[in-house]
Amino acid sequence: MNSLCEDCGACCQFNGHIELDAGHHIPDQFATADRLDGAPEGHCPAYNPANKLCRIYEIRPLVCQQFVVDGAACNYARGVVYGS
């Protein structure tokens, strides 16, 4: 994990869902067969707000794996979540 990610979790804050690639299995407590739905609290159900880490980091969806740390989407998410 990149040090910029530690104590952040902004990319995990979303309302809606992430479509899972065919054959990608996420444990049932976090996802349905084909998607990962945002939790009522407004974050990914695999996100642990207590430590700001992903509970399924090693098997996270491809879109999460491809998220570029300190890229445009990352900086946008940080701005939305933390106002910076």
Explain what you see.
With 84 residues, the chain is an alpha+beta fold. The chain has one domain (10-82). It has helices at residues 62-65, 72-82; strands spanning 17-19, 35-37, 47-48, 53-54. Strands 1-2 form a two-stranded antiparallel ribbon. Strand 3 (47-48) and strand 4 form a beta hairpin. The longest helix has 11 residues, at 72-82. The chain is globular, with a radius of gyration of 12 Å. The two termini are 22 Å apart. The model has no long low-confidence stretch (mean pLDDT 84).
In short:
The chain has one domain (10-82). Strand 3 (47-48) and strand 4 form a beta hairpin. With 84 residues, it is α+β, with helices and mostly antiparallel strands.
Q: Any descriptors?
A:
alpha+beta; 2 helices; globular; two-stranded antiparallel ribbon
Output mean pLDDT: 84
Structure classification: alpha+beta
**Element pattern in H and E:** EEEEHH
| Poorly predicted tracts of residues | none
Beta strands, count: 4
Strand order, sheet with most strands: 1-2
Rg, Cα atoms, Å = 12 Å
The domain tally reads 1
Number of helices: 2
Question: What overall form do the CA principal axes indicate?
Answer: globular
Largest sheet, if any?
2 strands, antiparallel
End-to-end distance: 22 Å
Helix content: 10-25%
